[in-house]
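quick one: 5-phosphoarabinonic acid bound model?
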Amino acid sequence: NNLTFNYSHALIQEHELEEMQAQIQAAHNLLHQKIGAGSDFTGWVEYPHTYDKEEYIRVQKAAEKIKKDSEVLVVIGIGGSYLGARAVIESLSHSFSHLIPQKNRQGVSVFFAGNNISGSYLKDLLDLIQEKDFSINVISKSGTTTEPAIAFRIFKDLLEKKYGKEGAKERIYVTTDKEKGALRKLCEKEGYESFVIPNGLGGRYSVLSAVGLLPIAAAGIDTDKLLDGARDAVKEYQDADVKKNPCYQYAAIRNILNRKGKELEIFVSYEPCFNYFAEWWKQLFGESEGKDGKGIFPASASFSTDLHSLGQIIQDGKNNKFETVVWVKEPNKDVEIIHDKENSDGLNFISGKTLNYVNKMAFQGTLLAHVDGNVPNLIIEIPKLDEYYMGKMIYFFEKACGISGYILGVNPFNQPGVEAYKKNMYALLGKPGFEELQSQLKERIKK
Ligand code: PA5
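yep, here:
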């Protein structure tokens, strides 16, 4: 009864994995001895044990206060500053949680802003919440990222108009760097409640810090159990022997498959509530490995939905991909297929069975079909979908990603490529200091 990793459909031979041991050992040493590229950003490895306990209590208190005085929490952040929280909240909440009356739910409704620059999206959210009691949690390590900074300016203004400057202060929670950046300065000036994004945690490895924990706790999810799962994962995935460590097996096999021409990895699940977990996973691997002309392109699919769209290209398209399937053994809820006297749809052969049983047959059938189509399948199974296994799975993927990046020979903890679009956008918007680039870009756009 634990998270398991099954590579019996990976289309590799056992000796290939064994031959990765030296590389696994080297990557393990780089990560654990903190001597690899980007080692300043490996604080997440021990974080489920070393986190600031006093701050954790403040996070819980803030979540309780939000639940008492607000119906909605607007979480403002982008990339690693929002994806983890959204992944956990959507995975562990009712599928239609926003429509559930507050009296019947454990926490507040959490909406996300500052993760795009769409005026329509922002206007819709502003219209939706202005009649409701709400708080905001702005999350930005640098404190200067454009998307959340714009959204924060607008929501702060709305809060101040609604509750006055003093009232608004009680409803603004800031998660940012301990010392640096515009948001930290603002906290000091205004006295907002604030939490720290520790130095050793890059955005995409920060979900188990206040970055993820405040929104997750405000949504009514048990963060103690989430951390329990992560702590057990620290222990379970620390053996450098690839034969004994499922997390390292996953990292090694991704690299084996990549060297055999598999350029695309598809994260697959059969539960729609995992859609944002897939987004978090895509950022984790994409930003960590996609550099220096290397990296597996992380894609995702939700089955059986996408078997009716992407299924064709996975089965019969270019032979350059593999799938990583997350399967939940015992889903929390189920529905039985009723018997129909008429049987006009011909479905009585499955009457009395449940949706989850049919889903499982879809999973097994798809697995074999895709393997027959030369698509290796890696399977991660969890006994059930709860806080504990969510915490464990988060750590499993984070550690696999760090190890996998080191095997690939990249720095898994930086993201230099993210800057290129930002510079161009600043220049085109006329940010002071970008005048020369602005005229060059305007010339190019005219063509
Ligand atoms: O993983 C990362 O480091 C990035 O995705 C950042 O989280 C993202 O760019 C947001 O940055 P910031 O928290 O500084 O606003």
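The longest helix spans residues 146-169.
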